[in-house]
Amino acid sequence: MVVTLKDVAEKAGVSTSTVSRVLSGKGRVGKKCQAHVKKIVEEMGYRPNTNARALACNRTEMIGLITPNIAGAFHGPICVGVEEAASKIRYKILIANSFDEYERVQEAIYSFSEQGCDNIIIHTNFVEDDELIQLAERIPGLVIINRFIPEIAERCVWLDNVSGGRLAAKYLIDSGHKDIAVISHSRKIADPKDRLTGVLEACEKAGISIPEQNILFDPIGTIDEGRLLARQLVESDAKFTAIIAYNDLMAVGAINELQDMGIRVPEDVSVIGFDDLYFCQTSRPTLTTIHYPISEMAKYAAELSVALTTKGKDATPKTHLFMPSLVERKSVKTL
């Protein structure tokens, strides 16, 4: 049976308006009365009607999240981070999968806005910068995660992918590796380009060059493509003792393919990934990788979105850059 505001008022022996003032924190109510009402609320398990409260204050306490696919190993933690932040302030969350389709992103934004949701977090590479800038002008709590747009920097929560690529390469170099291969992503988005830039910077600083034939690309970035590119590297007779993968999926795929070909990891070839997804600890060998704090970033994005709608953009920092870190496991051998 659903407990109503009236039920609480009757049991507490006060008016519904008094209960409402206690719950909202607005208006004058004596401390003794407040404590009594709160005790009754707790005992009865009453939960305020957020829709009614939204109508009363012309504001909906919701956070909308648009992400490619919540079933994905990378995108799932985004949902967890947003929900963790939302639950602390008793906001509801709306979730939409875009499946990397522009039209689905547009539909989700329209749907959220129709429901009065001013707090929207978007993770997409399929909407142009100019359009996101325009959306930021009309959606007070719009936040972009995993992407940086200078014109709306105060709304972007992003990772320094160049530093991540640099970390991966430096770790291999410090472990004695000079012959390095890279398997990466060919989509025209910033992440793979920035990570490769970091790798090449670290190698150049160490006086190491990576031949063009040692850098391979695929358009998807999955386990299967990791397998495919690892086989191509081996069959091309490229010289390498270590592979840097664009992400953990490709890294695990590469490890599986190398092992199927009779090549031991890390004894013959070392492999390092990027993201630090849950399965890194269950792969064999366990995967050394670059930690992408995506859940923490998502939680921060939700908090930022609420701050934008409650305090205004001038009350938030002008940049929201997160840094990657190295997680050392068992897939890299010291030469």
Q: Any key phrases for this structure?
A:
335 residues; alpha/beta; 434 Repressor (Amino-terminal Domain); Rossmann fold; 6-stranded parallel β-sheet; 4-stranded parallel β-sheet; 12 helices; 15% strand; transcription cis-regulatory region binding; HTH_LacI; DNA-binding; transcription
Helix-strand pattern: HHHHEHEHEHEEHEHEHEHEEHEE
Q: Which of globular, elongated, flat, extended, rod-shaped describes the shape?
A: elongated
Whole-angstrom Rg? 25 Å
Low-confidence parts lasting 5 or more residues at pLDDT below 50? none
CATH architecture designation of the largest domain: 3-Layer(aba) Sandwich
What is the CATH class of the largest domain?
Answer: Alpha Beta
Going by helix content, strand content and strand pairing, the class is alpha/beta
Number of domains: 3
User: What's the helix count?
Assistant: 12
